[in-house]
Write a structure and sequence with these properties.
The chain is of the alpha/beta class and 240 residues long. The protein has helices spanning 18-28, 45-53, 70-81, 104-111, 133-150, 166-169, 184-194, 218-233, 235-239, and strands at 5-11, 33-38, 59-63, 89-92, 116-120, 127-129, 162-165, 199-203, 205-207. It is built from nine helices and nine strands.
Length: 240
């Protein structure tokens, strides 16, 4: 039984999926701890969580005042999770049912051999279901660009379904990041790569959930490019 893991879930307008996601996790991993960081979702995501899980001590809900991005939400969750010294593994995943909890034990098992384990959409036996060709092309193009710039030995830089050892997260300063959006996935990986951490990947089936609108925006694309360039050419400032 896995009882030394914390699962970090950022949420924004996830009312339609968050309850099922949490139920699925607790059904599979009843001893797990979950930290949900919600950016004051206007659709009432936080109220939905409170409605079903207000008395469940396994779950901690953090509601921030403003929409501050997926990346900063994950970092906030890590900071909270690290307060519990009994937690050895930290899993991050999305709230929209794209990440099946059944892969969590596989990620944790892989993380026993590596510092960071990633569920990759781009391994030979992985699958992508429900995502249109344009989005798949953009995702592959983004991954190729980031791979050429950062040269981390992984195939998927942009999927937020990962497991980290405590010792890995303790090596980096969680409040010293350029980015707040999705590109923080690559920024965390790059900082850990520079610290000498090792990476492992598992194949998984990514199922795009159309009920949740993407929070991806042109602003985040610009932030992503800017962050990659800062990491590549000004890493000393990142460490300051």
């Amino acid at each position: 039984m896995l009882n030394n893991i914390a699962i970090i879930i950022p949420s924004y307008n996830a009312k339609n999926t968050i309850t099922q996601a949490l139920k699925d996790i607790f059904s599979l991993l009843p001893k797990s701890k979950i930290i949900v960081v919600d950016d004051n979702s206007p659709d009432g995501t936080a109220n939905e969580i409170i409605r079903y899980f207000a008395q469940d001590k396994r779950l901690k809900l953090i509601v921030r005042e403003n929409k501050d991005g997926r990346g900063s939400a994950i970092l906030k969750g890590f900071q909270e999770g690290l307060k519990d010294k009994n937690t050895d593994y930290f899993v991050e995943m999305d709230a929209d049912l794209c990440h099946d909890p059944k892969y969590i034990p596989l990620l944790v098992e892989k993380c026993k051999k590596y510092d960071i384990a990633i569920a990759s959409k781009y391994l030979k036996t992985s699958k992508i279901i429900g995502l249109n060709k344009g989005r798949i092309f953009f995702s592959r193009l983004s991954n190729y660009f980031i791979k050429c710039m950062l040269k981390i030995p992984i195939t998927d830089y942009t999927n937020g379904f990962r497991c980290y050892r405590r010792s890995a997260l303790e090596k980096i300063i969680l409040n010293s990041f350029f980015s707040k959006g999705f590109i923080s996935l690559s920024e965390v990986a790059y900082k850990l790569h520079k610290e000498g951490c090792t990476f492992g990947e598992i194949p998984f089936v990514f199922i795009f959930n159309k009920s949740n609108k993407s929070n991806f925006s042109l602003k985040e694309i610009k932030e992503a490019i800017s962050t990659i360039l800062k990491m590549k050419f000004n890493f000393r400032q990142l460490q300051a």
